[in-house]
TrEMBL record:
Phylogenetic classification of the source organism: Bacteria, Pseudomonadati, Pseudomonadota, Betaproteobacteria, Burkholderiales
Protein name per its UniProtKB record: Single-stranded DNA-binding protein
Keyword DNA-binding annotated: yes
Source organism: Undibacterium oligocarboniphilum
Molecular functions per Gene Ontology: single-stranded DNA binding
InterPro entries: NA-bd_OB-fold (IPR012340)
Record key words, sorted: DNA-binding
Length: 102
């Protein structure tokens, strides 16, 4: 795990959930593009109230930049190709822009 910054677009919608101990958190996916043009999916979880609330205002395709603890992962697609992914525990939301606000 390392601290990092991810910037991209919300993929789908953020969802609020509750843990077994009563903690509230939000999960979402952010689709980012690498320097080589490949897409990387970042699975985001946020416990911070401000980050949670701001993520919940975003919809599919909205831009976002987040800072937090990153963990690299890999997954295998339907064609059997191994692809990179990231998990992030988001601590700060640095930027958000709804589609069409440019």
């Amino acid at each position: 795990m390392a601290d990092g910054l991810i910037a991209g677009r919300i993929y789908g919608y953020a969802e609020e959930r509750s843990g077994s101990a009563g903690s509230v958190y939000v999960t979402c996916k952010v689709k980012a593009v690498t320097d080589h043009g490949e897409t990387v999916i970042c699975n985001v979880i946020a416990f911070n109230d401000l980050v949670r609330n701001r993520l919940l205002t975003l919809t599919d395709g909205d831009s976002v930049a987040l800072s937090g603890a990153l963990t690299p992962k890999v997954w295998t697609d339907k064609q059997g190709k191994v692809r990179p992914a990231l998990d992030m525990l988001a601590h700060v939301i640095l930027h958000q822009m709804r589609s069409g606000e440019e």
